[in-house]
Amino acid sequence: MSQFFSVHPETPQTRLIHQAVEILNRGGVIVYPTDSAYALGCLLDNKSGAERIKEIRQLPEAHNFTLICKDLSELSRYARVDNAAYRQIKHATPGPYTFVFEASREVPRRIMNPKRKTIGLRVPDNAIAQALLNELEAPLMSVTLIMPGDDYPLSDPYDIRTTLERQVDLVIDGGYCGLEPTTVIDMSRDDVVLLRQGLGSSDDFL
Known about the structure:
The chain is an alpha/beta fold. It has helices spanning 14-25, 47-57, 75-78, 83-90, 127-136, 157-164, and strands at 3-6, 30-33, 38-43, 66-68, 97-102, 118-122, 140-144, 170-173, 183-186, 193-196. The protein has one domain (3-196): DHBP synthase (Alpha-Beta Complex), CATH 3.90.870.
């Protein structure tokens, strides 16, 4: 049975954030809120956790995972981002965007796109997500919480608990989240490509 923490969406309780991080450090998989939708997350080096997330979502091997970072300073460690691309994304972070770049050697091959060696990177504008990242001092490997066969992410934390209470270790209740996932923009090639239109406007990138 998963644990269930009700965390204040604007001033997250330090005690609960600390307990959530302990669960992650023990190899846990959590559900947490972002500025677009609820997401599944685990630590970058948690191989079994990544497999559990794949199973919950029924993801194909070629799925591009996302690293949730606390700020842009982490991007250069996990992705190859040139100066022009950095300037483009700077104004949109934190925010409801996922940017796809060529992954660096710091990223395990098992979470890259197997053919293109890319990874998604995101800086969320959400107090709970930021509190987790600041406590961890490391990114979260993450995917949007859209269940197989559904068109939209799960948004009610109590429904999430009922659905996933035997498949995750913790559900963080940060209130209702939206039904739109992030906008996904591929910046790994010469031509910028919109992979998914979500909550964030893509006008400034295309």
